[in-house]
Amino acid sequence: MKIKYLICFIFLIVMILKITSDKNEQESPKLDKINVFCFADNENILAACTMITSLICNVTENREIDIYAVHFEDKPMSNSNIKKIEMLKTSIRNFNLIFVPFSRKKIERFNTGTHNPSTLIKLYCAEILPNQIKKALWLNEDTIVNSKIDKLYDTNLRGKYIAATEQKEEREKYLNASIFSPFSKWITAAVVLFNLNSIRKENVQNKFEKKCEFYSNNLKNLENIEHKSIEEYAINTVISEEKFVEFGIENCLMTNFNKKYFEHYKNETKNARILYYNDHKNKPWSKESRNKINKYFLKIWDSYFKKTPFFDNKLVKIGFEEVKK
After folding, report:
1. What is the phi-psi region of residue 231: left when phi exceeds 0, alpha when psi lies from -120 to 50, beta otherwise?
2. Taking the complete model, does pTM exceed 0.90, yes or no?
3. Which of 41, 57, 145, 159 is the right S-S partner for 71, CB 3.0 to 4.6 Å?
4. Which domains, and CATH codes, for the chain?
């Protein structure tokens, strides 16, 4: 009888150990923290808060998020706007929000043309972000994360400088200008995953600055180009093909494209991970522009805007009519 009890006891122990082992195998390993940086100030707060809302809605639940909101040091964000962004921690999910001042003096020597000087901030990622961060994702305030971003962030950079999306239509437009030739790709700068280790090791920031100086001195050669983006010029002339990882148009789909382009990328449109509202004249938060934006993409932007604390303000101060619930 004792032997039977002993056998039963041993069998029970074995089963408990097996169940524990299976459970441990099924449990996901601890995921790396997602580091995102963007430009956010009092002037672009609505767009930035909507983008941040879309981001935190589309990260795996148990994964930490650090968001570095960069602003010019002479124009810090107001306490009321900070509190509204912080409200997302309780209304949606927790995340770490770090405000980073940036000196305007670093870039005032560059001629950015019709673009806001803030577009240059991403080029200083290695300087403004903590040294312990190995990689970070830049998101323009005019982007929307519309599905889980984990796979994009986990892109294997393999020692390259960046991962980003090639925009073929943009490439064809810019290649006609001598200042941009010769290119084989055109990389959009709205969504860029930076390999901070490689950028710091090879002093890529200095290379970016030299290209910005050249751009500034030759801006007159760009008069016939609609979209004069200094930081895209710097990125596309410094980042050669061997230093670039393509992560597909489905990871950064421009919303301002013609019907032919829309039909060609129909599947990518439905499943796009990030939408880039790239028409610099028409943005979804502008009252005058809303009727000029594709309704499908406008509806997506509105769906995240409704989750922000600003939706209850009736948008009187923001400049366009209230989006109806």
Report:
1. alpha
2. no
3. 41
4. 34-246 (3.90.550.10)
